[in-house]
Amino acid sequence: MIVAFSVTPLGVGEDVGEYVADAVRVVRESGLPHRTDAMFTSIEGEWDEVMDVVKRAVAVVEARAPRVSLVLKADVRPGVTDGLTSKVETVERYLSS
Question: How large is the angle between the packed helices 17-30 and 47-62, nearest 10 degrees?
Answer without folding.
Answer: 150
